[in-house]
Amino acid sequence: MRELIDRLAREHTLTGREFAALIAGRDKDLDAYLFQRAVEVRQEIFGNRVYLRGLIEFTNYCKNDCYYCGIRRSNREAQRYRLTEEEILSCCREGYDLGFRTFVLQGGEDPYFTTERVCALVRAIKAQAPDCAVTLSIGERPGEDYQAMFDAGADRYLLRHETANDGHYRTLHPPSMSPENRKRCLRDLKNIGYQVGCGMMVGSPGQTPAHLAEDMLFIRALEPQMVGIGPFIPQHSTPFADRQAGALELTLFLLGLLRLMLPKALLPATTALGTIHPRGRELGILAGANVCMSNLSPTAVRAKYALYDNKICTGDESAQCRGCLEARLASIGYEAVVDRGDHPDFT
Ligand code: 5AD
User: Fold this and answer.
1) Does any ligand 1 atom lie closer than 6 A to the CB of residue 159?
2) Cβ atoms within 10 A of the Cβ of 31, count?
3) Are 30 and 3 in contact (CB under 8 A)?
4) Cα separation of 249 and 312, whole Å?
5) Closest C-alpha to ligand 1, atom 3
6) Where are the beta strands (DSSP E) in 149-218?
7) How remote is the CA of residue 257 from the centroid of ligand 1, in Å?
8) Ligand 1 mean position, distance from CA 205 (Å)
9) How far is the CA of 4 from the centre of ligand 1 (A)?
10) Do residues 282 and 331 touch, judged by C-beta distance below 8 A?
11) How far apart are CA 344 and CA 49, in angstroms?
């Protein structure tokens, strides 16, 4: 197994069978070996610098009905909210003063936020903070809309593919959604010139090592600049309320594999990782991640952006979140930097 890890580090790819064998056969010793290699690679490119992102969850209205997600449209228990442009700009100003130079605007697929409104918002943020990057995470749209938002100044786009296996995709989503359209969106985004992020939940219902191997090959072929992965965590008012959460160890293992496969990638130690383990994000960095996201949403709405249960940081002020992250990173010898944190090929 160590030979496979060495080869992945050298050649940046493996076959599907080899990925599946690694994923199914991992153990503590192999984890330690992988993390050491992954940290070496990350260190060479990024040193001990960790990029910060300020996350603004600006709407939890969603027209989709993904079986795993707490803001799916069928969830009548969700208390819906939508921030105004002025509220969003105010979150960005506060974030700027706290040292954030990337703002991630994330929301459900909310028809109120037409492409015109999103473009106006991006222009307003860029006018207020020209030295900052704007990342959008607002789901599936037609290619021309992605182009318009890019032209308005958006730098990056996050759209997790969720699972590369079409059959598995259809078990996680209603028939109104398709894996083909998801993949079409990712290709459009890449062709337009965004720094693109895909990603999947680890341990989503029905997922096998073979599915994860397919995810690795899909990511290899897409060559995204960012990959967001986190454990699946059940949300109490979704169809997957009673399913098991994804495992910490497997999520960390995949982060390590991703670092070796895409050495220059921006890999966040996600909030979901921090939710299933008190030091999950620190462990993510120690497995190869190099990005941390901090919540800048107004405290009053944070708990309402409930994709999954027990999400961390819902009670804290933005400044507290920022301080807490910095201290956590310092505790493991890493530095939270004031920087846009672009992919090395985009600087
Ligand atoms: N557990 C973990 N992650 C989730 N997401 C949505 N619901 C859950 C859940 N129950 C992730 C999806 C989505 C991202 C914004 O959040 O991967 O793309």
Assistant:
1) no
2) 16
3) no
4) 19
5) 232
6) 156-158, 195-198, 201-202
7) 21
8) 12
9) 30
10) yes
11) 13
